[in-house]
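To fix ideas, we now present one chain and its tokenised fold:
***
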Amino acid sequence: MVMLLWSLLLGVALLVAGGWFMHQYGKEGQAGEVMSLPARLLFTALAFGLIVFVFREFGPILTLFVVLVVGIILGVMWVPTLVSIALNPLSNSLTGGTEPVEKRPYYSRAVGLRKRGEFQTALEAVQDELTRFPGDADGMLLRAQILADDLKDPLGAVETLRQMADTPGRSAEEQCLALNHLADVQWKHLKDAEGSRATLEQIVTGFPESSAAQMARQRLAHLAGTIARSDSVANARLVVTEHTERIGLREDLGASKLVETDGNVAAAELVAHLAEHPQDWEARERLARLYVEPLGRIDLATDELERLLSETQVPVRHVIRWYNELADLQLKAADGVPAARLTLERIVKRFPNSPWAAQAEARLRHLVWDERAKHTTRTIKLGHYEANVGLKRGDASIPDPAKSEPASLDDSTGPPQLRGAD
């Protein structure tokens, strides 16, 4: 009776252990994730000890049942691990590895629905992903775009972007991205220039040393000019002027009718604008070009480009363009090849082992042709020679073909004739 009771208890324990293990195996996907290696080794040692104990106490019949159950559990536990160790190099080369796929939101369905014009369904698809991944930046930006551009609900887009920007723990990059999109919605859809300005100023004050703050300063400078132009256009009176007809038939193709801009006036306007917005890169570039042509002040243009190159937190593409413009400007001078060489070497030193350094080195190799072009070409003077010598007659050294006698054939007069056989 006691033996039977022990047998039942042992069988129930083994079945419960096997059931739990199979449940974990099916849930996690592989045995190695269910138990760690030390736990599996300990379980294997206890299983062998149990088999020995059952064999000594209850005999071979019950031991056979225990071996069967324990063998199944150990097989499920160890066989996948041993097979993966042996075949992983081959299987990974075919399948790409066994690393689990990162769980992240997918908005491809929402983008497809948006392209088909199903904007409300696309918004619902985005909201489903945001329910699974609350606060995801890409999802919130896509939601704001659908609300503002497609559903014509800019207030809803503003609320979404403010919620994204004010979320605690969000990175500075995502906050600046949300604020930039918010400024776009305020200016483009709500026509709120002051609100857009306040949003951009929030980027400048909140993240003063970041590249986003530099771009916000650029946008603030352009926003001021845009507001001034929009106000002047709104208050301007449209006047229809009389235009010259058939302008393409004129000799100058209408060039004389073009409005000529005074370079000094344009430069003064840009200087006043830069006094108020000193970090407006585009305006400073235009001022440098004005200094070159038509004003011809290469020294002032060089100063403006050097000031641009001294700016911090500037995208690399702008820096490279300014260096190349400075080199082009220096090559305009008579002795500017050494200065241009130093400018190009600054690119190589500042961005070593980069594509821009390779381009600068290639341009350095071609500077020898620019240097040769600066030298004056030696002029070779030709002598004075008599023209039309071959058309002259009466010169004893030049034979006259009209006076030469044709060669005779067979000492007979008249045209040559074929002679028949004798």
User: Anything to note?
Assistant: Confidence is low (pLDDT under 50) at residues 28-32, 417-422.
